[in-house]
Design goal:
The chain is α/β, with parallel strands linked by helices. The protein contains 13 helices and twelve strands. The radius of gyration is 21 Å and the shape is globular.
Length: 385
């Protein structure tokens, strides 16, 4: 019987805030409390912190500071970009995939319902990869003003999109390109001066920053317009008094993520490799969904595991893991309160595998090899009961 521990392997849902980030935010909350829109010294101090954070983020991504718009997170950034593209840029057709985050898919459904936007879905291969040849043929099939929305790293199975190639295809066909980069910024080196992407969405809590803050990258002279009105904050893109402590927390977390990136990537990759090898050794018949088992074609931060278990037994699986102090995810966290199966897995897995339980385990700098060993022991014991 396994002695209970506390193991957090749901880092694709959210991450533990780094202690340095908490300290920086606490200092700002205590000492820099002026309204950034005020012209007195208190306000100017707050405004200076925001603009410094903007410059830091822009420098890391190699873009202009004016192209970074702070938001409440990735969902708001996606909504801002997609809604404004239809309302203000005369986009009539949007091409996406069936495995996007619901922040994108639900927004597109509403745009179709309200504005009659034509939605098209690019084909996926047997592993859930976007077929870029099909994207090209869809773009060739119509001269309607088109936006393409494809995520860089899939949040459930970790598949990597060739974002540069996708962007090059869009640019060659005069289509706008939006990518949800929530699972990749902070985990991969991203140079948006080299990647032909027009819009991206980012969220701080995915790279050990605070919840409630993120940003949209909006390429200059795009023509995008605000959705929230009431003031001139964020260059007019997002009215409302800025949460200075959150923005500074985002800045600090992103700086630290890229300062330690190579070392942390190597360490987290070793945890993922150990977990995969141990699962294959201890649980015969285990499968890895999408490309997550291929270290060259998926993110190093997660494994989506299909377990050889009956549907009846699987009903107690997450409950048993939780009893043993293990946090993981059945699908994306934004779906965890729903009885629906994963829309991502349903898009490409065979029916036989959809009947088996699949779990997403996602890793961070705070996880250990000992935790991985414990999780596999708990899984094995439960399956052998």
């Amino acid at each position: 019987m396994c002695t209970m521990k506390k193991v957090y392997l749901d880092n694709a849902a959210t991450t533990q805030i780094r202690e340095e980030v908490v300290d920086r935010m606490a200092g700002v909350m205590k000492n820099v409390y002026g309204n950034p829109s005020s012209t007195h010294a208190f306000g100017r101090s707050a405004k200076t912190l925001i603009e410094q954070a903007r410059k830091t983020v822009a420098g890391i991504l190699n873009v202009a500071a004016s192209e970074i718009i702070f938001t409440s997170g990735g969902t708001e950034a996606d909504n801002l970009i997609l809604n404004s593209a239809v309302r203000d840029l005369a986009v009539k057709r949007i091409i996406t995939s069936k495995i996007e985050h619901h922040a994108v898919l639900y927004t597109l459904d509403k745009l179709h319902e309200v504005h009659g936007v034509e939605l098209q879905y690019v084909n996926l291969d047997a592993c859930g990869n976007v077929e870029l040849d099909h994207l090209e043929s869809l773009l060739d099939a119509s001269e309607e003003k088109t936006l393409v929305s494809l995520m860089h790293v899939n949040n459930e199975v970790g598949n990597l999109l060739d974002i540069k190639k996708a962007g090059e295809i869009c640019r060659s066909k005069n289509a706008l390109f939006h990518s949800d980069t929530v699972q990749s910024v902070g985990h991969y080196k991203m140079d948006f001066s080299e990647i032909p992407v027009d819009f991206t969405a980012v969220s701080a809590h995915k790279f050990h920053g605070p919840k409630g803050v993120g940003f949209a990258y909006i390429r200059k002279n795009s023509g995008l317009q605000p959705l929230i009105f009431g003031g001139e904050q964020e260059r007019g893109f997002r009215a409302g008094t800025e949460a200075v402590h959150n923005i500074v927390g985002l800045e600090e977390a992103l700086k630290l993520a890229y300062k330690d990136l190579d070392e942390e990537k190597k360490y987290i990759t070793s945890l993922k490799r150990h977990f995969k090898d141990l699962l294959q050794k201890e649980i015969p018949g285990v499968k890895f969904n999408g490309e997550c088992g291929d270290f060259a074609r998926s993110t190093y931060t997660l494994l989506n595991v299909c377990l050889p278990m009956t549907p009846e037994k699987s009903l107690m699986l997450l409950f048993q893991l939780d009893l043993h102090g293990i946090a993981c995810s059945k699908g994306s966290a934004c779906q965890s309160g729903s009885d629906k199966g994963s829309h991502v897995l349903s898009a490409f897995l065979p029916e036989e595998d959809l009947k088996k339980p699949s779990l997403r385990f996602s890793f961070s700098r705070y996880n250990t090899k000992e935790e991985v060993d414990y999780v596999v022991r708990v899984l094995k014991e439960f399956m052998e009961k």
